[in-house]
């Protein structure tokens, strides 16, 4: 009995535990269901709010119904004409946004444009009253027929528009499609007047598939059926270029016939005339080149004794070679024309080359000596007497001093020295009238009379008798050398020979000491005179070299000025005063100029 009671009590306890667990599980499930239901309510409220907010803008049943009706039976592969023989007219225009790059070497112009295209599609017409007053519809361009207008002179892989934007369709069937595009068009560059050049780049558009009988191409501003439109590109949203000015943008329609077909193929060519802004190249190329060419002139102002003439010329030539290499990296490798800057660099290099040759010749003249070269009379007359006056060269100051002293004291300067100074006023021997050379160049003075007052006195002093007329005998004639200088032994022999053969002197009447004194005095005088003559001729050659330097300094200065002006003044753009049209027609440019306070409010509000 007790066992049964225990079992029943255990069963009751187990039943209570199970009942409690069931209640707990049910309560947890209810809590979870409450959380899920609350989250669902929040999501439904958010979705209903969004649907209510976009109800009037997105959920346009009239536009959706119109789109479904138009596209239900539309085929984008068929040309939108009522009859197959009808001609579809496509109007085209360009709106230039930015001139990205004009690559002179690659001959490619990169532009950012909007291609404006307009045509009529009879399949896309509707009555606005049947569709809630909807007059315009925006549809993806991939779902309607598009004219295959491509850029003929394309220099890139993409011939047509790559960004397919939406097209605007009105209730009359007019389709307007203005996709943006970045075109790289080939442009034949004319580098003849670089960097003062103007370039004419064109963009030729036409249908790639259809001929003129199927698709006729006209300019969007062509209202009078003319083939030439002066302002063929819209510049209202153009951003100014920092390198180029746009001078003109005409558009011309042409029809071309090919040998294979009888049908015409129309195209529209947009010509863009660009004028380069030359400030960058003027500062970085032209001014340094002109400065270097002026240095080639200073080669002749550099003294020959410095030994730097040829080194300076070679350094200038290396600098010009560097600028020529820079120019080669800019211009295209064409042989049709040489750029203006290239002509100037070649001219300057020729000038420097000639200056090197002339400098070498001048140095050769400067270091000549009497032992190797003899100066001709015409050289002395032309380069010492005539050219210095014509070249406005200042004569040395000592010439005037010698002439003044000669005028005041003619007896102090011998005739021979005066003659030499008149012919060679720049020589060192003329700088000091009291030099030993000038003294020994004079005639030998007679011996003092008191030494030979009587024959007895002469006999007592010298032993041998001296003739009475020795005091008044004519002096020895000074020895001269013509041509190359005479060495010391040869001079001594000539002196002794003259003493031996002189008709006015009798050696047996001279004392031995006096004979030696006369001999050594005449030898010293002859040696000094030879050295002075040697130095004077060397100074003559140096002066001739200095005259040549001054002569070529003037010649190269005139050649440099005339050559620089003659080369750079050939550019027609230097005389062109035409105002660029990009500033005139661009609203963006006007806003920028107004922000920079370059134009007033009245000019900003002008209707373009």
TrEMBL record:
CDD domains per UniProt: LGIC_ECD_nAChR_proto_alpha-like, LGIC_TM_nAChR
Gene3D superfamilies: Neurotransmitter-gated ion-channel ligand-binding domain, Neurotransmitter-gated ion-channel transmembrane domain
Keyword ATP-binding included in the entry's annotation: no
Name of the featured protein: Uncharacterized protein
Domain Neurotransmitter-gated ion-channel transmembrane stretches: 285-568
Pfam families referenced in this protein's UniProt entry, alphabetically: Neur_chan_LBD, Neur_chan_memb
Topology in the lipid bilayer: Multi-pass membrane protein
Naturally occurring in which organism (per UniProt): Varroa destructor (Honeybee mite)
Subcellular location: Postsynaptic cell membrane
NCBIfam families, A to Z: LIC
Gene Ontology annotations for the cellular component aspect, listed alphabetically: postsynaptic membrane
Transmembrane intervals: 36-55, 279-302, 314-332, 344-365, 551-571
Function: After binding acetylcholine, the AChR responds by an extensive change in conformation that affects all subunits and leads to opening of an ion-conducting channel across the plasma membrane.
All copies of domain Neurotransmitter-gated ion-channel ligand-binding, residue ranges: 64-278
Superkingdom of origin: Eukaryota
InterPro entries attached to this UniProt entry: Neur_chan_lig-bd, Neur_chan_lig-bd_sf, Neur_channel, Neuro-gated_channel_TM_sf, Neuro_actylchol_rec, Neurotrans-gated_channel_TM, Neurotransmitter_ion_chnl_CS, Nicotinic_acetylcholine_rcpt
Family classification: Belongs to the ligand-gated ion channel (TC 1.A.9) family. Acetylcholine receptor (TC 1.A.9.1) subfamily.
Single annotated GO MF: transmembrane signaling receptor activity
GO BP term, example: synaptic transmission, cholinergic
Classification via PROSITE patterns: NEUROTR_ION_CHANNEL
Keyword annotations: Cell membrane, Disulfide bond, Glycoprotein, Ion channel, Ion transport, Ligand-gated ion channel, Membrane, Postsynaptic cell membrane, Receptor, Signal, Synapse, Transmembrane, Transmembrane helix, Transport
């Amino acid at each position: 009995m007790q066992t049964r009671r225990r079992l029943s009590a255990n069963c009751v306890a187990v039943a209570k535990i199970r009942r409690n667990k069931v209640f707990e599980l049910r309560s947890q499930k209810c809590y979870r269901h409450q959380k899920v239901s609350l989250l669902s309510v929040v999501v439904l409220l958010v979705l209903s709010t969004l649907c209510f907010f976009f109800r009037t803008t997105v959920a346009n049943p009239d536009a959706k119904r119109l789109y479904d009706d138009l596209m239900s039976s539309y085929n984008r592969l068929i040309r939108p004409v009522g009859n197959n023989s009808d001609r579809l007219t496509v109007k085209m225009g360009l709106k230039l946004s930015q001139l990205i790059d004009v690559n002179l070497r690659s001959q490619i112009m990169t532009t950012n444009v909007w291609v404006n295209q307009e045509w009529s599609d009879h399949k896309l017409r509707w009555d606005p009253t049947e569709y809630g007053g909807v007059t315009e519809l925006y549809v993806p361009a991939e779902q309607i027929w598009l004219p295959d207008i491509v850029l003929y002179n394309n220099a890139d892989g993409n011939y047509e528009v790559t960004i397919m934007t939406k097209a605007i369709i009105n209730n009359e069937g007019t389709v307007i499609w203005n996709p943006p595009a970045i075109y790289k068009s080939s442009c034949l560059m004319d580098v003849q007047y670089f960097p003062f050049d103007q370039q004419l780049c064109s963009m030729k558009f036409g249908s790639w598939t259809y001929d003129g009988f199927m698709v006729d191409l006209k300019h969007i501003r062509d209202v009078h059926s003319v083939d030439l439109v002066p302002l063929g590109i819209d510049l209202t949203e153009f951003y100014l270029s920092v390198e180029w000015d746009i001078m003109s943008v005409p558009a011309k329609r042409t029809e071309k016939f090919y040998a294979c077909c009888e049908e015409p193929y129309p195209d529209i060519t947009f010509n863009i005339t660009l004028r380069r802004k030359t400030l960058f190249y003027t500062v970085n190329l032209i001014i340094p080149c002109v400065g270097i060419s002026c240095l080639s002139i200073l080669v002749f102002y550099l003294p020959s004794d410095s030994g730097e003439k040829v080194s300076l010329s070679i350094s200038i030539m290396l600098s010009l070679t560097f600028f020529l290499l820079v120019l080669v990296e800019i211009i295209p490798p064409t042989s049709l024309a040489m750029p203006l800057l290239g002509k100037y660099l070649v001219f300057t290099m020729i000038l420097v080359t000639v200056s090197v040759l002339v400098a070498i010749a001048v140095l050769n003249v400067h270091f000549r000596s009497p032992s190797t070269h003899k100066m001709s009379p015409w050289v002395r007359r032309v380069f010492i007497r005539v050219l210095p006056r014509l070249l406005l060269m200042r004569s040395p100051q000592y010439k005037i001093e010698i002439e003044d002293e000669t005028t005041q004291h003619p007896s102090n300067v011998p005739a021979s020295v005066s003659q030499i100074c008149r012919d060679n006023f720049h020589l060192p021997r003329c700088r000091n009238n009291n030099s030993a050379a000038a003294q020994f160049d004079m005639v030998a003075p007679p011996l003092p009379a008191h030494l030979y007052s009587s024959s007895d006195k002469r006999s007592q002093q010298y032993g041998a008798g001296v003739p009475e007329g020795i005091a008044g005998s004519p002096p020895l004639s000074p020895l001269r050398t013509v041509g190359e200088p005479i060495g010391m032994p040869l001079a001594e022999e000539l002196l002794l020979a003259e003493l031996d053969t002189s008709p006015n002197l009798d050696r047996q009447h001279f004392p031995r000491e006096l004979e030696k004194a006369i001999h050594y005095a005449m030898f010293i005088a002859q040696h000094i005179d030879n050295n002075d003559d040697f130095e004077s001729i060397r100074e003559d050659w140096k002066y001739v070299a200095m005259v040549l330097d001054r002569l070529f300094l003037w010649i190269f200065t005139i050649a440099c000025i005339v050559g620089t002006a003659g080369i750079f003044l050939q550019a027609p753009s230097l005389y062109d005063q035409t105002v660029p049209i990009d500033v005139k027609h661009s609203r963006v440019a006007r806003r920028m100029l107004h922000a920079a306070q370059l134009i007033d409010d009245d000019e900003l509000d002008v209707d373009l």
